[in-house]
């Protein structure tokens, strides 16, 4: 066991844990989109930023292993501002149709945008619109909602045993999809619907 300080509260956690796991053990809530305790770490969304003592910049708590006597702060002005900026980028190409969205009230992105986002945006570019692709009869894709958290990619690789889904391009042009037209045939493919933070994989259809 190693001791660390979270918001001036001294706690003991197991050696080898990450900061986000230590915060959960201490009952401190940290927002996240890409992190899931059953999947390997990606660090894509950057929503779980925390302030580390003697560090000039906030760091992603999901990929940050803690060291003895580390001091973590989750509720400072620097953390709140960083999370607000991250949310602004995540909403850059996301359709702002929450009042008529079929997932209204059940969307993690909507909830965290309300809790951690800003009431205005600084970007006025044309939103990127992606066409839906056919992944099979069980899953309907709504790719214009995707925030590229890669939960579906990691789940399909780790649980389904298939690398058929991946990411292409970089930065704001990143997309989730298949490198060539194919059908998702893994027995556990329906699980990505439950994992998706924006429910862009939508609905399960009966065969």
Automatic annotation (TrEMBL):
Q: What is the lineage of its organism?
A: Eukaryota, Sar, Stramenopiles, Ochrophyta, PX clade
Highest rank taxon of the organism: Eukaryota
Q: Which cofactor does it need?
A: [2Fe-2S] cluster; [4Fe-4S] cluster
Q: Which UniProt keywords apply?
A: 4Fe-4S, Iron, Iron-sulfur, Metal-binding, Mitochondrion, NAD, Translocase
GO molecular function terms listed in the Swiss-Prot or TrEMBL record:
4 iron, 4 sulfur cluster binding; metal ion binding; NADH dehydrogenase (ubiquinone) activity; oxidoreductase activity
UniProt lists the family membership as follows: Belongs to the complex I 75 kDa subunit family.
Describe the location of the 2Fe-2S ferredoxin-type domain by residue ranges.
1-78
What's the name of its gene?
nad11
Q: Which GO terms describe its biological process?
A: ATP synthesis coupled electron transport
Name of this protein: NADH dehydrogenase subunit 11
Q: Does the keyword Methyltransferase apply?
A: no
Which Pfam family is one of those matched by this entry? Fer4_Nqo3
Q: Which residues form the 4Fe-4S His(Cys)3-ligated-type domain?
A: 78-117
Alphabetical GO CC annotations of the entry are: membrane
